[in-house]
Amino acid sequence: MSNTGLGKSLSKLYELYCENGGVVTTDSRAVRSLPGPVFFALKGENFDGNHYAAQAVTEGAVAAVVQGKLPKGVKAGSPEAAKYFVVEDTLAALQELAAYHRDMLGLPVVALTGSNGKTTTKELIARVLQIKYRVACTRGNLNNHIGVPLTLLSVTEEDDVAIVEMGANHRGEIAALCEIAAPNIGLITNVGRAHLEGFGGPEGVRKGKGELYDYLAAHGGTAIYSLEDPVLAEMIGERFPADATGMTVGYASADFGISAAVSAGGGDKLILSTDRGEVRTHMAGAYNVANVAAALAVGDYFGIALPQALEAVAAYEPDNNRSQVVVSADTGNTLYMDAYNANPSSMAAALDNFLALPGAEKKVLILGDMRELGDFSTEEHRAIVEWLAAVVPPAECYLVGPEFMKALPEPGDGMRVFPSADALAEAIKRGDAVIRNSHVLVKGSRGMALEQLYPSL
C-alpha cells in the first residue's frame, strides 16, 4: 500500500468511524441516507471528490478525507476544519483504514479470485456459511482496489467471517489486495484466458492469479483448491511444500457425492446427481458444478454438514445476468442470461453447455465481443467463429460487436453479425431477425450491454 494516506491521523479517524456506526462512502449523494458516514473524496481522471466534500459534511458526514487541501472556504485551524483529514492520496487512506479495521476485527477472511465464476462461487460460499455463521461478503462486484476496502469496512464486530472477492486485470493487483485484506483462507476458481491485454498473455494470468497463493504461502494461510484442475494443482505444488500440513486443502466433486452425471432438468436449470439423490438448483450450466464443489469445500473447512450445505446450494437464486434462466410467455423463448462478463474460457464453457442441453429443439446464440484481450483479441474472436462454423446450424447465431465483425466480415452459414446490441435490437424490432419459441444463450462482456435485448427476446 502507498504511504501517502492517513499516517498519524489513522487512529483518530478510526475512532470517529467506530463511534458513528462504522460507515464509509465515496458517494456524496449517499451521505443523507447514511448514519454519520466518513466520506472519502476519491480523485480520478474524470472526477474529483474534493468538489463535494464540503457538501458531504454539511449533509451529515462526521468526517471527510480530502486530497491535498481543505475545501474552498474552510480555514485551517477553524472548528470546521477539524472535520477534514487532508492526505496526499485519498485512495491510499481508504485502503489504510480498511487494513487497520481488518486487523482490529481479527476474524477469518476468505479471499477468492479466478478468471471465471468468482461472483457465483462467492455467493454460494456465503449461503453455505450462513447456515452456521454470521457472514459479511463482497456486495455485487466491489472486488477491486476501491471495492475491497469498502467491503472490509462494511464488516462489523458481530460478523464471524468475511468473504472477499478479488478481481484483477494486471499483475500485482491481487498481491496489493491481499496486503489490505490479509486473508487467512484463499481459493482460486480457475485460471483461464481472461484480461489477456493487462496480464500480457496466459502465463501472466497464471502468475497474477497465483499472487493469492503467494500471499497465503508467505503468511501461513490455507489454500483450498480443486484436485480436478491440473493447473491449480501445479500452482499449489510450486508454492507449498509437500509436508505443509494444514496449509493446503485439495478437494474433488466426488468428495461431496457429486457424480459426473449432471443434467439440465426440463431443458433449463442444473440438476446435480449426488449419492444423496438429485439436487435441483436455480443455476444454468454444468460449469457451475465446479463452483458448487468449491463452496462445499469451504463449507466443509468451516464445519458445515454436507446435507445442509447442499440445501443452501439448492436455494441459491442467481441474479445480475449471471447463470440465470428466464422463460418468456410472450415470445415462447427460454433465455440463458450470462451477459455480465465474457472471456475465451467462459465463452467456451457456456457454448459447450448450451449446445449439449437436451430437449431444446431450436437453439439461438447471441454472442457479444469479449473485452480486454488486447493483441490476442482478433485471434480469440476468430477462434470462436471457426469453432461455431462446425456446429452452426443446428444453432442459429447472432454475433455482436466490432471484434466479431472483424472475425466474420460477411454473414456465414447460420451466422449473422451486427455492430452493436442496438443494431440487433432494431433488426428484431423490424422483423429482420425473428427469435421466438427458442432456447437462447445471451453471452458477452458487460460493455456490450446485451441485457438491453432481453425485452424483445
Please describe what this structure looks like.
The structure is a single chain. The protein is an alpha/beta fold. The protein folds into 3 domains: 7-87, 3-Layer(aba) Sandwich (Udp-n-acetylmuramoylalanyl-d-glutamate--2,6- Diaminopimelate Ligase, Chain: A, domain 1); 106-315, Mur-like, catalytic domain (UDP-N-acetylmuramoyl-L-alanine:D-glutamate ligase); 324-456, Mur ligase, C-terminal domain (Protein-Tyrosine Phosphatase, Chain A, Alpha-Beta Complex), CATH 3.90.190.20. 34% of the residues lie in helices and 19% in strands. The strands form 4 sheets. The chain has a 6-stranded parallel sheet, sandwiched between helices. It has a 6-stranded mixed sheet with strand order 14-15-19-16-17-18. α4 (118-129) runs parallel beside α11. The longest helix has 16 residues, at 90-105. The two termini are 47 Å apart. The mean pLDDT is 88.
